[in-house]
Amino acid sequence: MISAQRLTRRFGARAVVDDVSFEVSRGEIVALLGPNGAGKTTTLRMLAGLIVPTSGAVVIDGVALTHATAATLRARIGFLTESPGLWDRLTVRENLSTYAKLYGLAHPDNAIDRVTEMFQLKQQASLRTAELSKGMRQKVALARALMHEPAMLLLDEPTSGLDPEITRGVRHLLDERRAAGSAILVSTHNLDEAERLADRVAVLHERLLAIDRPAALRRRLTTGRLIVRVTGDPSKSLKTIRRFDAAAAIEGATLVLRVADAEQQAPAIVAALVAAGAGVIEVRPEMPALEDVYLHLMKK
């Protein structure tokens, strides 16, 4: 539904985004990771049609994003910028009402009531946005981005400044939008959030360094070590697992060994342990955290 095709954006001689291509499909959440200055916001702004790429193209649901198509396509996108983009002198409801008119909603009051209820903003509806806390302004900006129930969402740090309860609510809301078939691209620094929320993770640092499912990215740094947990004293099973790796050892309450192919050899290890009388609780390959993969990619 959202396609970035060899996107490049230069500011003067400096390339902020260089030859980046990826797609976000219907019913999918892709998390965009990268350090400050990596080009995440610039990429989102190009996809939203707010800035023009130096080269490359953006295609939304099969239609190229051009000057002629931008107004129509932008109406189908919910975009949360890195700053809330609200009018400080207007109340929360007045801000939402203004955007409802810009979106051309047939029943703006119903839409405003729905999102103020969704984000628990009814008590703040009559307050000017200048009076709101950072987290509360973020909630209003999210309400604005979702008010027209867009088919595509481009969200720049959507949970920044939000308390844990509202953050969980936002995640639940994004799950619902995904289930409804929305294509969602989320820029975040929160690796735990990315792993829990996203179907795929894209790592950006001017160029696209990697894009894949979180588990697949973690497998890239697999150590080849197999972690085995048994009931009782693990030392009683050490002789058994050393048939598969002479250097197998005990680490804490677990047995650790190296194998060439964990998936292929694990059943034989389990069978040997059971035959030796061990109660097998768990046998799994040691997997790095997504944070380790991210830092590895940044270092490279």
Plain-language structure description:
The protein has 300 residues and is of the alpha/beta class. It has two domains: 2-218, Rossmann fold, CATH 3.40.50.300; 223-287, 2-Layer Sandwich (Alpha-Beta Plaits). Helices cover 35% and strands 27% of the residues. The strands form three sheets. A six-stranded mixed β-sheet has the order 6-7-8-3-9-10, sandwiched between helices. A four-stranded antiparallel β-sheet has the order 2-1-4-5, with helices on one face. It has a four-stranded antiparallel β-sheet with strand order 12-13-11-14, covered by helices on one side. Helix 3 crosses helix 4 and helix 4 packs across helix 5 (134-146). The longest helix is centred in the middle third of the chain and has 16 residues, at 164-179. It is elongated. The protein starts with a strand and ends with a helix.
| CATH homologous superfamily caption of the largest domain | P-loop containing nucleotide triphosphate hydrolases
What is the CATH architecture term of the largest domain?
3-Layer(aba) Sandwich
Strand content: 25-35%
Number of strands: 14
Number of domains: 2
Major sheet, described briefly?
A: 6 strands, mixed
- Looking at the structure, what is the overall shape? elongated
CATH class of the largest domain: Alpha Beta
User: Could you state the order of secondary-structure elements as H and E?
Assistant: EEEHEEHEHHHEHEHEEHEHEEHEH
Low-confidence stretches: none
Structural class: alpha/beta
Q: Helicity, in percent?
A: 25-40%
Number of continuous helical runs = 11
Distance between the termini: 31 Å
**Gyration radius over CA:** 24 Å
